[in-house]
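User: I'm putting together a teaching handout on how sequence relates to shape, and I'd like one worked example. Could you take Peptidase, S41 family from Porphyromonas catoniae F0037, show the sequence you're using, and then write out its predicted structure as tokens right after it?

Assistant: Happy to. First the sequence, then the structure tokens directly below it.
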Amino acid sequence: MSSDSLFLIMTQLLSELKDGHVNLATPFDYGRYWRWKSDFPRGYDTELIEDYLGDDYRIAGAMLYTRLQKNGHLADSIGYIRLSSFASGLSDGNINAALSRLVDCRALILDIRGNGGGQVTTSDLLARHFINKGRLIGYMSHKTGPGHNDFSPKHPLHLKPLERGLKWLRPVVLLVDRGVYSAANDFTLRMKGLPFVTVMGTQTGGGAGLPMSSELPNGWGVRFSSSRTFDASGADIEFGIQPDKELQFSQEKSRLGYDTMIEGAVIYLRDRFENFKRTRRWEK
């Protein structure tokens, strides 16, 4: 059997796991599984997002940020942060700088659509700026043996509050889609359920297992997930996290200059502020 044929067979076998963290690495190709997002419509348009950012947006590490102005939204007083990857650099200094320059805004839209992940530590770093006390976010269980159910007992995962730095304890809409994976899925887990945070969009792509790598006898490399992650209720999030409120991206509206997910988030925030005026309580 040729190397190419062996690679094809092994890649097909590994694809049965339906895991984007499973890869086969060879000198001539890299086996991967993309159907966690390719089977679903894309939830954003890059050029349209650039229109919402405008020409004068600021850059803080991996974050692009501005006060929303497009389509008459300046009066809504909503900050907008676009974070397309957790693989690029992001520090507490970057986050503090961005949030301090949006401090005059009454709410924030944090857009991570299409964010395929990166560093889990960055996910934790950012999420800590949106809480004022620690909370249980879920559980993790590690593979301990060759058996199908050989996993360690679940151990709790906690999000700890920021000790020093700027905290944003105002309303936030987190925009997600099927392209949100790995560390970005982890960030969604950390944010969902926070008092002032509403996750909007479509189900995330998942990818909750921590990847590890090994070398095969023929010298090829294989990467695979070595753990399972659960939310605080005990639900497995390997195949994604459901939003608090579903929003769909419309290609038709996008051609007219409207991102239906950003616009939906603005409408939602307007409605919640009107409700707050009446009840003096913030209700999602």
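A couple of points you could highlight for students: The longest strand covers residues 135-142. The chain has one domain: 3-279.
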